[in-house]
Design a protein that fits this description.
Blueprint: H1 3-22, H2 24-34, H3 40-53, H4 58-61, H5 63-72, H6 81-96, H7 102-116, H8 131-148, H9 153-156, H10 173-189
Length: 196
């Protein structure tokens, strides 16, 4: 992005901050509706703003956080790489809000691990997000969840071990092993059992 484009982008995000202070329910509902439209550009834009809004404190987001988490569950089967990229980044932010727990949390982690094993196939270059960068980004997200989101540990351990045994998960093994190594080291440090 050029200097003026970055400035306009940042100004646009500040406008959403202001709207979030005055009418958060309508704004989040509108963004989630836009995230379901047919046009990719609108969907990516709406998810980008949702990602920006998730930088707010958990208390400020309030009940809107649950609406976002509930809506995101429907996006975990997305196949468009540009949408997958935004959803993966939203999952990371939801982790910092303590939302990577229970069955929904397991679904979100499964989505991230599935994207860790994305390989670049024919025609992937024309889709905007390079497949290898999406896979690497999701590997980093998995590592960040393991190292900096304590609430995610109950979802990551021992459930992430299952992904090591999947026949189609070979590409995700390095990311999964790094995450598991960190979690098992933390568990040993605390004197907890690591046997499964």
């Amino acid at each position: 992005l050029k200097g003026s484009s970055v400035k306009n982008h940042n100004e646009m995000l500040r406008c959403y901050d202001t709207m979030m202070q005055h009418s958060p329910g309508k704004l989040v509902a509108g963004l989630l509706a836009k995230a379901d439209t047919g046009e990719e550009r609108l969907r990516v834009g709406a998810l980008l703003v949702v990602r920006h809004i998730l930088n707010m404190a958990t208390e400020e987001l309030g009940e809107r956080l649950e609406a976002i988490v509930g809506h995101l569950a429907g996006k975990l089967q997305e196949t468009n790489p540009n949408i997958q990229k935004e959803v993966a980044q939203i999952v990371m932010l939801l982790g910092h809000h303590g939302c990577i727990v229970g069955p929904r949390g397991r679904d979100m982690v499964a989505f991230i691990i599935r994207l860790c094993r994305v390989e670049e196939g024919p025609g992937a270059r024309g889709q905007g997000v390079a497949a290898e960068s999406l896979g690497a980004m999701c590997g980093n997200i998995l590592q960040l969840l393991a190292t900096s989101v304590p609430s995610a540990e109950t979802v990551l351990w021992p459930h992430t071990l299952d992904y090591l045994l999947q026949a189609d998960g070979e590409e995700a093994v390095p990311a999964v092993i790094r995450a598991l190594a960190h979690i098992s080291a933390k568990r040993l440090e605390r004197g907890e059992e690591v046997a499964v």
